[in-house]
Amino acid sequence: MLYDLIIAPFADFEFMRRALAGTLALALGAGPIGVFLMLRRMSLVGDAMAHAVLPGAAIGFLISGLNLFAMAAGGLIAGFIVAVAAGLISRATQLKEDASLAAFFIVSLALGVVIVSMKGSNIDLLHFLFGTVLALDNQTLVMIGLNATVTLFGLALIYRPLVLECVDPGFLRSVSRAGGVAHIAFLALLVVNLVSGFHALGTLLAVGIMILPAVTARFWARDITTMIVIAAAAGSFAGVTGLLISYHAGAPSGPAIILVAGAVYALSVLFGRVDGLVWQMFPGRHLEA
Amino acid sequence: MTEQLRFHNLTLGYDRHPAVHHLNGAIASGSLTAVVGPNGAGKSTLFKGVVGVIKPLAGRIELNGVRPQDIAYLPQIADIDRTFPVNVYDMVAMGLWRRKGLFGGIGRKDRDTVEAALAAVGLTGFEQRAIGTLSGGQMQRMLFARLLLQDARVIVLDEPFNAIDAKTSADLLALVRTWHAEQRTVLAALHDLDLVKAHFPDALLLAREPVAWGATATVLTPENILKARHMCEAFDEQAEACAVAA
Description:
Structural class of chain A: mainly alpha
Mean pLDDT of chain A: 88
Helix content of chain A: over 70%
Strand content of chain B: 25-35%
Mean pLDDT of chain B: 88
Strand order of the largest sheet of chain B: 5-6-7-3-8-9
Largest sheet of chain B: 6 strands, mixed
Number of strands of chain B: 9
CATH superfamily of the domain at 1-66 and 190-246 in chain B: P-loop containing nucleotide triphosphate hydrolases
Largest sheet of chain A: none
Radius of gyration of chain B: 19 Å
Distance between the termini of chain A: 51 Å
CATH class of the domain at 1-66 and 190-246 in chain B: Alpha Beta
Oligomer: heterodimer
Low-confidence stretches of chain A: none
Structural class of chain B: alpha/beta
Distance between the termini of chain B: 27 Å
Shape of chain B: globular
Number of strands of chain A: 0
């Protein structure tokens, strides 16, 4: 019974095993990135950049069809261009960075949809928008795994300046010049993960596997290290459960994964040990000291 | 007297507007100097310049025998994001940065050093507390523990005793006195003139431009303080380029 429910779908079908491997790798890298996005107050920046990846990937698609490398390279380049351009515009003008990103990403989204529609069918468009987690080929799987590996090693390298730049930027600048480099490296890791997420979950949902586990973790931990672990675990749980639900209920997989992540988040808001709403309603008697 | 710092016609500021204007002079090695002045006088700006966080608009700062990153810096407490989920131990251990850099491991000996620093500021037992749960005084004690770990020849303190109770001020002041006894060069921005007169041999009275600088008793005279108070605070949007040769 339990076997049929949980193990059989993965044991019986190769595409489910691939989807499982892909989502787990994705969740491991994206969760920690999401935690930093949240703590750096960049959640919306992540969303904006996810959409910005689309026209680049679409141009890759236009040039060479459903070719992994062309699409990934296009996505990477477009992501970087938007990240840098939005930063430059906010520095050079009165516009705040979030506003200029909002302007950029909505244009990118429209542009991407137009480009994809020029060459592809509506099915292609659907894949671009919502991903193809059930149809990951070997190349894509390797790329997602590689991206997750690069992400975890990269974060380990820039961990100290990244944390310190959030808590105490003045102190960081007084001991080290690494703050700026770490920020750029972090943006690079963000784009890399968005390209992974784009293939599995599509441009509209890619950011979900980053942000939802991260905001979930905020309700269970007071310490960033624990938070990162919880985020990766919550993302993995959402991946496995979402795939199973989509298998048994015939729901589309990407949205199912994100919905599970969303449900976990909602439960955490209510019952999370750190500032969860239910705990706030029943705080218990105050302590003696 | 050997000089630790020398300011050469130093102008620091933001968007070309000077916050510290044409400062000349030297800080002796091993001296304990209070930097005094009204809000907006340029105290914080001067310190940011000394630790290399901002670049001079004109002139320069000569650091004799130290690099900017070798100066221990206590930023104003308002610059710290206290909602960030990091615990006291990790925050204090950041003081080991100069020795550990980006990747250096924290070994058994380092852990003892961190514990000793926490004990010196009276925060033993607070290791795992999130920084958001600390009181203002505990927060400042934690930052002093980090300064202890930095073990720097030059220490720059931006308003270390602001909004701190008498007991905490006294404890932290004792650490400052120890640093002075150890021949470290200490600069502190302060508002409590009685405290300055009682404990700081030297003082620099700043109101964008230096008003007086030297032995505390000769600097903190009523006339000088009045003069400092009258110097304007606001930037003049119509200001012309400064005519004094750089």
